[in-house]
Amino acid sequence: MNKLAQFLKSGFKSLKRERYYALLNILGLGLGIFCFLLTSLYVKDELTHDKWHKNAENIYMPQQIFESEQGSMMLMPSFAIGQGWVDEIPAVRDYVNISSEKHRDYIINESEFKTKQLVFTTGALFRIFDFSLALGNPEKALSEPDAMVISHEIARKHFKGENPLGEYIEVKGIGTYKVTGVLNPIPSNSHLQFEFLVPIDFTKDPYTGLENNWQFGSGYHYLLIDEGSDMEKLSDETLAMLEKHTGNKQAMPFRFNKFSELYMSGSAMRTGDSMFGGRKKYVVIFSIIGALMLLVASFNYINLTTSRSFARAKDFAIRKVIGASKARLIAIQLGETFFIALLGLVIALIALELTLPSINELIGKNLSLQIQRDPSVLFLPASVLVLVMLLSGLYPALIGSRFNLSASLKGKSPNSRGTVIRKALIVIQFTICTGVLASALIIRFQANHMINMDLGYNTKNIISIEMRRSGLYDKMQTFKNEVQRSAIVEGIASGPIPTSGGAMIINIGEEDKVQQFFGYSAADKNFINIADLQIVAGNSFANVDESALANGVIINEAACELLDLSPEEAISTKIPDSEMEIVGVIKNYHTSSTKSKIGPQIISYDEDQLSNVLIRYKAGDQDKVVAHAEAVLAELGYTEQLKYNVIENHFENAFKREEALISIFDGLTIMLISVAGLGLFALAVFESQIREKELCIRKVLGANSLTLLRNLNMRFVLLIGLALIISIPITQYLIGSWLDAFPYRIDSTANYFILAGGVVMVLAIVMLSIQGVNSVRKNPAEVLRSE
Question: Over 50: is that where the pLDDT of 489 sits?
Fold first, then answer.
C-alpha cells in the first residue's frame, strides 16, 4: 500500500508541476487510445462473426455457381435436395432451409408495424445453430403451420414484460400466427438475424409447390456435415444425386462454403445494414487506422516528455545522489507514464461511451463496451494501457536515467544524442498525417466523381411505379392510358430504368464457345424516347415494323463489344443460339450505380414482361403527378398507399459507404494533425530552449527576427518536406488498391497529394512560427546574464 501511495503521490506531483504539458499528454494519449479501442472493438466484432456456434466449423452453405468474364451468378439449390442430402449422403447429418429476409407489415392489437426480418424456416434451425429460446420448446416451436417465434426485442417492444406465448400476430398478406417461442438475444456478431420465424408453408409464397421439387428452390440451405468430410467428394455425390432424380446431367458443380467463413468471404448472401461489415479490406483499413493513431499519440508523448527532460535533469540528478538506481529512475518515469496513460484511458472510455451510438449508426454496427455482454471486452482497455505505458514511457525513461550527474547539477543542458530519434518520430508522424489527409481528399473526390457521373439517360422528372409487386399488373395498360390524359404528364412508358430486369446466358464464339452474362429486360415503344437514350445505330421500337417487333431486340454498346460487332454490323444480326434479331444499338447507360461497370444489355419488345410504369412530368409537378396517379389507382380499386421511385434519387443510398468513409477520415485527419501538431510544438520548444543562448548571441551580432526564425525552424520544415516525400508513394500504393475497385475513377491523384502536402506544411509553419516568435523576442541580456 505504501508503494501504491508513493506512486499516486508521485503522479499527482508530476501533474501539478507541469500542468500544461501533462494536459497535452493526457489529451493526446486519450485521442490515440479512443481511436485504438474503437477500431479494436470493430475488428474483434468482425473476426468473431458467426464463430460462437459450437457447430460453426461443420456447418456449410451449398451454392451452385455459374461464372463468366462478366461475373458470377449463384443458383439456389432446389428445395427437395435438402432432405436428399440427409437421406442419401452419409456425411450430411442434418439440414435447414432459411428464406431471405422479408419486409412485411404486421398487426398486434389492431396497431400496424413494419419488419425487415421475417424469415421462413423449420425447427431444424435450433438443432444446427445455437439460437436458443427464452420461452417455448425449440423442438415444437415451429412444428405447427400457424406457429411463430419472435425475437427478444419484439417481445419486449410489444408485450412489455408479459408472457407473449399464445398471443396472435397477423402478418399482412400471409396470415395470422400464434406466438410459440421467444428467442434469447442474438449476438450482434451474427449475420443471421431474425425478428419473426414462421414455418415454411408449401401453399404460400415463396415456397408454393416446392416440397418435392428437384429443379427449383427458394431460400438458403445450411448443412451440418461430419467433421473432416471431403468436400470434392460431397460435390460429386451431390451431382450424381441430382442426375438420378432429374434425369439431367449437371454441368455446374456445387461449392460448399464453411459457415464460419461466410461473413468475411462475402458469401453470406444476406441483407443487412452493416456499412463496413463482412469485408476484409475494411478490417485491414480500420486496423491500420487504430494502430497509426495510437503510434502518433505515443510518439507525441515521447516528444513532449523528452522535450521537457532537461527541465527535470536536476531532479533525476538529485535522486541519483541520494541513492536511486538506474532501474529506480526508469520505474519512476514508467510510473508517471502509466498514471498519465490511465487518465487518458479514462477520457477515452468516457468519450467512447458517449459517441458509440452515433458511431454505430454511421458504420452500421452494434459495438459495445458492456462487460456483462462480453467479459473479454475488459481485456482491451487493460492491454492498451500496458501497451501505451511501454510504447510511450520506455524511451523517455531510458533517456532520463542516462543524464550526466555532474553536468545536470551544474545546470548544463543534457546532451542531445536523442535528437535523431525525436526528429525521426516527427517525420513518421507527418508522413502519417499527410497520407491520411491525402486519402481523405481522394475518397471525397472519388465519391463526388461517381455521384456526379452521367448515367447515360435523362433522370430528371421521372418516377417509376412497380406494377407487378403492387398486384396491378393486369391493370397496367388501363393505368397508363388514364395517367396519360393529364396535361402535367409529358410522357409515359415501361422499361429498364433505374435498374434492369433479369439476366440470360449466351454462348459466344464460333468454335470454342464461352458462356457470357447478358442483362435481359423488356420495354415498350416509348421507352427510348422517355429515357432520352441515344440511338447509335438502327432504330428504336417505335420506328420498327410491327412484323419485326416479335423477335426484335435493342442492345447496348457493351453487348456489341462482347459480340465482337460494330454497331452498324450488329443491325439485323441474330443473338447467338436464339431467334432474337438486333434492330437497334443504344449508347451505354447505367442500370446500377456508377460503382459497377456497365454490362451488356439486351432489351426486348415483350409486353408480357413489362413490370413498371415510367411517368415523365413537367418540372416542379412531382407532387401533382403522384396525386394524379393515386387518384387513377383509386378508381381502379387499388386502396394501398402508392409506392414509387424517383429516378433521380434512386442511387443516392449506393454511396453511403463512401460518405461514411469521408466522415471517418475527416475526423481521423483532425485528430491526427492535432496530436502530431502537439509533437511538433514540443520539439520546437525543446530545440529553442537548447539553442536559446545561440539565438541571443546571433541577435546581438545583428541577426533580425526573420533570419532567426528561418535558422530556428528550417530544419523542421525540411523534416516535414521529407515526410511529404515519403508519404506520397506509400499512400498512393495503399489508396490505389481502393481506387482500383471502381471501374470509373478519378484520372489523377497528384493534385490531392499537392493539396494535402500544402495544407500540412502551412499548418506546421504557422505552429512553428508561434513558438519561434516567442523565442526570438527574448531579451539577450536576461538570457546571457547567467553565463
Answer: yes
- Please state whether the peptide bond connecting residue 498 to the residue before it is cis, i.e. omega within 30 degrees of 0: yes
The predicted structure's pLDDT at residue 408: 43
Using only C-alpha atoms, the chain has a radius of gyration, in whole angstroms, of 34
CA distance 275 to 270: 13
For residues 31 and 349, give the distance between their C-alpha atoms in angstroms, rounded to a whole number.
10
DSSP conformational letter for 575: P
Using a pLDDT cut of 90, give the percent of the chain over it.
Answer: 26
DSSP string, 711-728: HHHHHHHHHHHHHHHHHH
Q: Peptide bond before 206: cis, by omega within 30 degrees of 0?
A: yes
Q: CB of 592 within 8 A of CB of 447?
A: no
3-state class (DSSP) for residue 519: strand
Mean pLDDT, the chain, rounded, equals: 82
| 552-556/196-199 β-pairing | unpaired
Cell numbers at residue 232, please?
470434392
What percent of the chain has pLDDT above 70?
Answer: 82
Please list the alpha-helical segments (H only) found in 248-324.
259-265, 280-307, 313-321
Strands 71-75 and 254-258: unpaired
The helix (H) or strand (E) run that includes residue 96 is strand 92-98
Q: Does the pLDDT value for residue 410 go beyond 50?
A: no
Q: What is the DSSP string of 207-253?
A: STT-TT-SS---SEEEEEE-TT--HHHHHHHHHHHHHHHHS----SP
Among 494, 436, 446, which residue's Cα sits nearest to residue 468? 494
What is the average pLDDT across 749-756? 90
Q: For CA atoms 333, 338, 343, 349, give the dihedral sign.
A: positive
C-alpha cell of residue 188 = 450482434
pLDDT of res. 576: 87
136 contacts: CB under 8 Å, gap ≥ 6? 149, 165, 180, 181, 182
Q: 119 in helix, strand or coil? A: strand
**What are the pLDDT digits (tens) for 113-170?**
988 889 999 999 999 999 999 999 999 999 998 999 999 999 999 988 789 999 999 9
Distance CA 422, CA 302 (A): 8
User: How long, in residues, is the chain?
Assistant: 787
Q: Can you tell me the mean pLDDT for 272-291?
A: 80
CA dist., res. 104 & res. 116, Å (int): 7
CA distance 593 to 3: 64
- The helix (run of H) or strand (run of E) holding residue 258 is strand 254-258
Question: What's the predicted TM-score (pTM) here?
Answer: 0.78
What's the rounded mean pLDDT across residues 317-335? 61
Sheet containing 489-493: which strands, arranged edge to edge? 489-493, 612-617, 462-466, 645-646
| Strand arrangement, sheet containing 552-556 | 502-508, 514-522, 601-604, 552-556, 581-586, 535-538
Residue tagged 439517360 (cell numbers):
457
What does the alpha-carbon distance between residue 498 and residue 365 come to, in Å, rounded to a whole number? 29
Whole-angstrom distance, CA of residue 99 vs CA of residue 246: 24
The residue type found at 328 is R
State whether residue 757 is helix, strand or coil.
helix
Q: 735-762: string of b/e by CB count within 10 Å (b at 16+)?
A: beebeeebeebbeebeebbeebbebbbe
Q: How far is CA 492 from CA 28, 604, 629, 638, 783, in A?
A: 61, 18, 12, 20, 86
Summarised one tens digit per residue, pLDDT across range 433-481 is: 898 899 989 988 998 899 888 899 999 999 998 886 556 667 788 888 8
Nearest CA-CA partner of 746 in 535, 529, 448: 448
Region at 505 (left for phi over 0; alpha for psi -120 to 50; beta for the rest): beta
Q: Pick the closest to residue 587 from 529, 535, 532 (CA basis).
A: 535
Q: Which three cell numbers stand for residue 378?
A: 475488459
C-alpha cell at 756: 494535402
**Looking at residue 405, what is its pLDDT?**
46
How far apart CA 613 and CA 527 sit, in angstroms, is 10
Query: Within a 10 A sphere around the Cβ of 710, how many other Cβ atoms?
Result: 13
